[in-house]
Design a protein that fits this description.
hpI Integrase, Chain A; three-stranded antiparallel β-sheet; about 50% helix; about 5% strand
């Protein structure tokens, strides 16, 4: 975006007319296209520079590995050794169409195009390219995501807990599954949880770090560092876990390896949960469904969606709104529907509706106004 000058208003001699503004814009575009490129680079050449740049910005090693894979498997093989300026919006659209034919999900394609666009923004800023063809390419309309989410009912959760093996790992995992369902912590956050993060007096669990393929690190996002309320049952089970554990120092892991105290393999945790759910007779269940269990149950209990966002560490409020349908009816819509469509109401409901709606519209008054002289 470039500022060309003030707009001329009718009857004024100061500023640019529409025709003058268009001419000035064409002149600036011509200058931009004529500007020499610092260095002619292709995508394969600029990719290492971009990755090094992101590393200096503090991007996680796991994310950098994902970017490197995107370059190596998807982007470089398609765009080849063409210089950055030789890639057109039409070619970007062809890349998108090819990935759709390969059966890639829209989420994956969006990640690929997002990375490609970020590389071009990096290149344009440093004089390696003149335009960003990704921003000029047309993308197909986004499909609306499935509104249904998978979560466990309390009965299903209890069934899973009953089918956890009664061994060293199982006794630890049973408390972990319960904590996941009643706090909404992510798998990596649970694996990284320390005893110093559990505050029995305040009734809170404080999320301060996470565990992944790169080891221990900060939580997923800035909002992921948070305090989550503990239900009484969670607090009691964690206290029993503390008594049974051989690792009780402040820095020791709550859900560490029962024998070594080291971080529990998240992949193994995921598989063992799926096995317990299968033994309990549940249809295909994922460990992440325990997080959805927390969101739906808290919404059904009447917790504000904004508070649920904070507890779950969602960076975007819109992510949390998937639980809004499970909340009680704050607008008393059921009562309004009954009133609108003539369903029978109890005396108490009539009184409530009178309080909510002080003026009831009628078709005509039963009393005629006094006649005028």
């Amino acid at each position: 975006m470039r500022k060309l000058g003030p707009r001329r208003t009718p009857g004024d001699s100061v500023g640019l007319t529409r025709k003058q503004a268009e001419a000035e814009l064409r002149r600036l575009v011509g200058e931009e296209q004529a500007r020499p490129v610092k260095e002619r680079l292709d995508l394969e050449t600029i990719a290492p520079r971009y990755l090094a740049h992101k590393q200096t910005q503090g991007v996680r090693p796991h994310t950098l590995k994902t970017y490197e894979m995107f370059f190596r498997v998807h982007l470089v093989p398609f765009f080849g050794a063409r210089s950055l300026d030789a890639v057109t919006p039409h070619e970007v659209e062809n890349f998108l169409s090819m990935k759709l034919r390969e059966g890639k999900s829209r989420k994956t394609i969006d990640h690929l195009l997002g990375l490609l666009s970020a590389v071009y923004r990096y290149a344009v800023k440093r004089g390696y390219a003149r335009i960003n063809p990704v921003e000029l390419a047309d993308r197909p309309r986004q499909q609306r995501p499935d509104a249904d989410i998978r979560y466990l009912t309390i009965e299903e959760l209890e069934a899973v807990l009953r089918h956890v093996p009664d061994d060293e790992f199982g006794r630890m995992e049973r408390v972990l599954y319960l904590t996941a369902a009643m706090t909404g912590l992510r798998r990596g956050e649970l694996v990284a949880l320390r005893w110093q993060d559990v505050d029995w007096f305040a009734g809170l669990i404080r999320v301060r770090r996470s565990y992944g393929s790169d080891g221990f690190g900060p939580p997923k996002s800035r909002r992921s560092s948070r305090a989550v309320p503990m239900a009484d049952r969670v607090a009691a089970e964690l206290e029993h876990r503390y008594v049974d554990s051989a690792f009780r120092a402040d820095d020791d892991l709550v859900f560490g390896h029962p024998q070594l105290g080291t971080a529990y393999d998240p992949s193994k945790l995921r598989k063992r949960f799926a096995q317990a759910a299968e033994r309990a007779g549940l249809r295909s269940a994922r460990f992440h469904d325990l997080r959805h269990t927390f969101g739906t149950q808290m919404a059904a209990a009447g917790a504000p969606i904004r508070a649920i966002q904070e507890w779950m560490g969602h960076a975007d409020y819109r992510t949390t709104t998937i639980y809004a349908d499970y909340a009680p009816d704050p607008s008393r819509g059921v009562l309004y529907a009954r009133r609108a469509f003539g369903a029978l109401r109890t005396h108490g409901e009539d009184d409530l509706m009178e309080a909510l709606s002080p003026v009831t519209p009628t078709r005509a008054s039963s009393k005629a106004p006094p006649a005028s002289d």
